[in-house]
């Protein structure tokens, strides 16, 4: 076997014992591979704790300083994992994102990887050392430390696997693989043996936090097989790979819930060419993704537009939209919070009819109101009240018979999610 890239998430290195267990796992896998690069996340809830610390000092810190702070979490982990490997007699070198030269865009807290310099990594690997790389962080061309967005260590790992032409990227986490729904919310969710990049990408974008969506994009673009598996079990997990005939042919392979969404409504804008362009250029400049866009004519001849965004982006959107309104010379901005999106995903949807009807019926039977619907070839999403989220996910999961009847067991480090608007 050639090179392997392994990634350990925060729960899998949350204590010294777990860190040593991860090191033993690396040692085992190193015997089978020509070289091993390990990507590691910050320990346990470190990133949340660092954000809380920042919040206590300044509720709206500059994003550059947030990155400076958050990058420390992964730096602690790489040093400790390298020490753990040394304690097992395995030569290892820890490297931060800037030391590797993981170059990113300058968009602090949501930067994108542009290139990875493999020279230093290969020098270490060729010298027989394990390289332990800090996930989630990179550096801009002018030397600023950046982070890749929450959950971004997956992306570091898959991008590294692509750059090193590794045989596989193993994502070690606290669940047995990718399930038909988040097993914390739907206890009878079923583990999938395989899933296509396209389906995993949709699920990740739509809220399946088990993989960072950009990691799946890298995997697909560079054809890196991604194996998601439990960090303390030897069982095979889920292989994320190209679509193949033996994949499940069901119309829906999984469902997901995305919480903490808000809706931005811009009312009574001028109804003339260039207004949409101004709005979406401003959002693109701030590197903000929006969805569920609805536009219609306002009663007085102007136009209204609304779109859904993540709560955490609202602080950047508000001033950007105020600038657009000022340029337009008219209009007002309204913000609603407390929304969620429930979605179903499956390549088989391309050939099955009635999927939308089944989803809407399941939500109606559960007494859940739908505010907006978006579809693509392989997904259907509904915006609902946040308070209906779990009920909606369970209803949809049951309607498409995704369960296997065996409740799933998962590790119990409850996720902490801080929302900052
Ligand atoms: P790590 O720290 O290892 O990166 P994460 O917390 O980011 O771990 O991702 C693992 C978690 O993803 C699981 O504990 C689970 O609650 C959640 N999750 C959400 N959707 C899914 C899904 N479809 N399949 C498996 N896990 C999921
Ligand atoms: N430590 C970062 C986070 O908590 C990155 C990661 O875990 O992937 O989001
Ligand atoms: Mg993760």
What do these coordinates show?
The protein is an alpha/beta fold and 421 residues long. It has 2 domains: 3-174, Carbamate kinase (3-Layer(aba) Sandwich), CATH 3.40.1160.10; 245-421, VC0802-like, CATH 3.30.2130. It is 34% helix and 26% strand. The chain has helices spanning 16-32, 46-57, 63-87, 97-100, 119-126, 153-163, 197-205, 213-222, 275-285, 314-328, 355-365, 389-399, and strands at 3-8, 35-40, 92-95, 102-104, 113-116, 130-134, 137-139, 145-147, 168-173, 194-196, 226-230, 238-241, 254-269, 291-297, 303-310, 332-345, 372-376, 379-385. It has an 8-stranded mixed β-sheet, with helices on both faces. It has a 6-stranded antiparallel β-sheet with strand order 14-15-13-16-18-17. Strands 4-5 form a two-stranded antiparallel ribbon. Strand 7 and strand 8 (145-147) form a beta hairpin. Helix 6 runs parallel beside helix 8 (213-222). The structure holds adenosine-5'-diphosphate (ADP), aspartic acid (ASP) and magnesium ion (MG). Residues 9, 151, 154 line the site of magnesium ion.
Task: Identify the notable features of this structure and list them briefly.
globular; binds magnesium ion; eight-stranded mixed sheet; disordered C terminus; VC0802-like; 2 domains; binds aspartic acid; binds adenosine-5'-diphosphate; six-stranded antiparallel sheet; alpha/beta
């Amino acid at each position: 076997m050639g090179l392997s890239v392994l990634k350990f998430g925060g729960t899998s290195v949350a204590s010294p014992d777990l860190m040593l267990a991860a090191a033993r796992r690396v040692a085992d896998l190193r015997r089978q591979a020509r070289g091993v690069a390990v990507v590691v996340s910050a320990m346990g809830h470190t990133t949340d704790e660092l954000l809380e610390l920042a919040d206590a000092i300044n509720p709206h810190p500059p994003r550059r300083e947030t990155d400076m702070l958050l990058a420390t979490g992964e730096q602690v982990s790489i040093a400790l994992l390298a020490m753990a490997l040394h304690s097992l007699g395995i030569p290892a070198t820890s490297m931060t994102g800037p030391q590797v030269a993981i170059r990113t865009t300058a968009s602090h807290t949501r930067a994108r990887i542009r290139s990875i310099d493999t020279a230093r990594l290969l020098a270490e690997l060729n010298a027989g050392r394990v390289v332990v790389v800090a996930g989630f962080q990179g550096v801009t061309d002018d030397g600023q430390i950046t982070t890749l967005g929450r959950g971004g260590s997956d992306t570091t790992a898959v991008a590294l696997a692509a750059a090193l032409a590794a045989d596989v990227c193993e994502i070690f986490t606290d669940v047995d693989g990718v399930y038909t729904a988040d097993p914390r919310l739907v206890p009878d969710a079923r583990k999938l043996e395989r899933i296509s990049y396209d389906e995993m990408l949709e699920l990740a974008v739509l809220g399946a936090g088990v993989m960072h969506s950009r990691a799946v994009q890298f995997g697909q673009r560079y054809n890196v097989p991604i194996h998601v598996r439990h960090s303390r079990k030897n069982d095979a997990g889920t292989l994320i790979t190209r679509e193949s005939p033996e994949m499940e042919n069901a119309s829906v392979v999984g469902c997901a819930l995305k919480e903490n969404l808000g809706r931005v409504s811009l009312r009574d804008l001028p109804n003339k060419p260039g207004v949409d362009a101004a709005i979406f250029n401003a959002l693109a400049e701030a590197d903000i993704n929006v969805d569920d866009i609805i536009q219609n004519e306002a009663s007085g001849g102007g136009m209204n537009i609304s779109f859904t965004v993540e709560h955490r982006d609202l602080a950047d959107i508000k001033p950007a939209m105020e600038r657009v309104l000022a340029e337009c010379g008219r209009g007002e901005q309204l913000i609603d919070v407390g929304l969620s999106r429930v979605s179903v995903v499956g390549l088989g949807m391309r050939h099955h009819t009635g999927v939308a009807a089944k989803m809407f019926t399941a939500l109606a039977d559960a007494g859940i109101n739908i505010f907006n619907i978006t579809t693509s070839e392989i997904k259907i999403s509904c915006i609902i009240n946040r308070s209906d989220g779990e009920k909606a996910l369970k209803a949809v999961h049951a309607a498409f018979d995704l369960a296997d009847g065996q409740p799933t067991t998962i590790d119990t480090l409850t996720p902490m999610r801080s929302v900052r608007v």
